[in-house]
Amino acid sequence: MPRTLRPGQRSELYTVDVRSGEHQLVFTSNEILFEAPNWTPGGDLIVNGDGKLFRVDNGLIEIELGGVPDINNDHVVSPDGTTVYVSADDGHLYAVPLTGGPGRRVSNDRGPGFHHYLHGISPDGTTLAYIGLEQVGVRRVTNVWTVPSDGGADVQVTNDEYADDGSEYSPDGQWIYFNSERMAYVAGHAQLFRIAVGSGEIEQLTFDERVNWFPHPAPDGSSIAYVSFPPGTEGHPADIEDVRLRLLTDEGIRELTTLFGGQGTMNVPSWSPDSTSFAYVAYPLDVS
């Protein structure tokens, strides 16, 4: 069921210029809880909300999803700008023309206990990176998987019982970035990693006390934007006060802002095509 705003809460869509650090409020709503902004190659912003997908243009303009079930906040745009791929509440992945039209299921049927959560697409547009969630008895097991964007056989990239999420390709297609609890010393302590496509070599990227999620490499490879939760956070919950947006660069970690948010703030690839800005959503709550 789609998330809704709490009484006194609103959704605020921002962009931030990573050179100047300037934040620009693009759109706000007191009616719809929209999430997970990303850009088309042409520079348009897209968000989801109420189980639907919208283009942002002085308001929310619905993109017709052609019979696809209600979607969640996992969606990516093809590099050529013709197609948007979405995760639906039935657990499957679908391809839809970005201009709207009939949806086409991309994912395979791996049984009723398996759900696909989409996070990335390869630079050539041929392969989707997703998180496969499988219910094994009382345990929820998540791993990184890929599937051809035109449909075909899945490839399991990780095969373990660590909590993995947020799988996204590097700009050169040689790595898949993700967050994982594989080095956690307490439950929920996710850090950022990347795994080499083909060899399976894994490299840890962050090593701090905060809980780090959803690594988004800039298109030019200059930095990685990600969401950082307070120590002790489990999962990526909504409505957390001390959520920080950070950049990981060759020089280290750079803080960009602190906000009230979490789930939905920056779940999907959110960089502008020219790598100068990325988009995010805050969910301020008026408690007066």
TrEMBL record:
InterPro entries: 6-blade_b-propeller_TolB-like, WD40. Pfam families: PD40. SUPFAM superfamilies: DPP6 N-terminal domain-like. Belongs to the TolB family. This is Biopolymer transporter Tol. It comes from Kribbella albertanoniae.
